[in-house]
Amino acid sequence: MRVAVISAEAVPYSKTGGLGDVAGALPKALKSIGIDSVLITPCYLQTKGEYLWDTAIHDLNIDWRGGVYRAKAFYSEANGSPTFLIDAPSYFHRDSIYGYSEDHERFAFFNHAAIVLLKRIGAAPNILHLNDWHCGFAAVEIAEKRRWDPFWRDTRTVFSIHNMAYQGGFSAGDLWKFGFGSEFARNAFAFNGYASAMKAGLEVSDTLSTVSRRYAMEIQTVENGYGLDWLTRQRAHRLIGITNGVDYEVWNPETDPELPEHFSIDDLSGKAECKRALLQAFSLPVEMDRPIFANITRLTAQKGIDLMMQVAGEILNAGAYVISLGSGERRYENFWQSLRDYAPRQVGVYRGYNEPLAHLIEAGADMFLMPSKFEPCGLNQMYSLRYGTVPIVRAVGGLDDTVQNWDAVSGTGNGFKFGPYRADRFLEKIYEAIYAFGDKEAWRTIQRNGMTQDNSWENAARKYVKLYEWTLS
Ligand code: ADP
Questions:
Q1: Does the global pTM surpass 0.90?
Q2: Is position 437 within any domain?
Q3: Which is the closest atom of ligand 1 to the Cα of 326?
């Protein structure tokens, strides 16, 4: 079986969120269990030159918008599996990866270029694994091509939803410019009077997956379907949930190069050193008995920052530290900054994106806050579990799949979990966590339960192979 994974971002070439982690790690995990896979992703301005091993194709000429776009393709295996990076400077050499009014055109081009590239290298995949709305275009192009082009006849498409809230909507009048003039294509994209790349992917792909079992159910509800729940319900028989894995080569407290000291489940002394280093990094007084509550995230409403705003004062009143790493909406950035100004000896804030700091926070913190409104999978709670940092989460999406609420009587559970999106429920769990933190033995058990949980990619990759086999059958 040959698999081509197509993604708008992939670690280490580019990353803005969980999609990048998944698209970088899955091909490597597939390779490790013997599946022949190739990854195709854009080459951004942000992609480090050291990852571009070789110019594989100097003249990747793409018929595009009535002319020819002269692109290139780099080759790399920096993520641990064969990768082609499409180099089209006018589309991808920009200050940020997303956020432009013509994003739909940028990714329509990327999809088409990926298909041209696969044909050029003569390797029709059995499975074209497409990710999020950015790849809805390829789902339609392949569905059309395999009717008349024998090269694509045996290719089947898998479409993975990483976040239903981003749907790639654009004016339907643009479709013909990207070669989607047929009735089939126009119908696939048509959504409420405009075109939606997410809808097209959901409608025409052979099978669908999403990134946790719980989210597979949630996207079939009005609340989380963002207008497309009727379609996910209609296609529910072709939809499964596979909870993301963690790349334990990157996120492992025993080997993590970003940490001042390493630690393991049998010897947590290095974690105390990481806590000390973390407090010092934020110029906070080093008082080791006070718990550190941490958060690393895009600052958007999805992540439950409104709930954090409501409980932050109580956490400070309890004498704990709060550390936040993230950037995003101005109102949330302002909130963290004013909290820091209010309590400079208890609050640490870093506004921006900082991968090494994310590792130090995971290692040095005691609790990790994820009160998300919705969370397709979530990765930080799984990193936290491995680093002995106890997650406090809302029971949604992948958070519900991976975190079990602590039960002091049976000694089971790896974190704290609440249901309704309410500050009082969140706060209850925060107080429970502070109470458990005071009981060294109980705390060690919660940490152990989390650190021994296996969220490896190998598990997830085997489920993807089953999905591919199902798609081909
Ligand atoms: P989402 O994809 O919705 O942003 P996930 O939890 O699935 O959320 O993945 C987020 C990923 O991005 C994690 O690997 C997290 O550590 C990382 N991340 C988010 N914000 C930052 C930041 N400011 N600095 C470093 N890493 C970040």
A1: yes
A2: yes
A3: 23
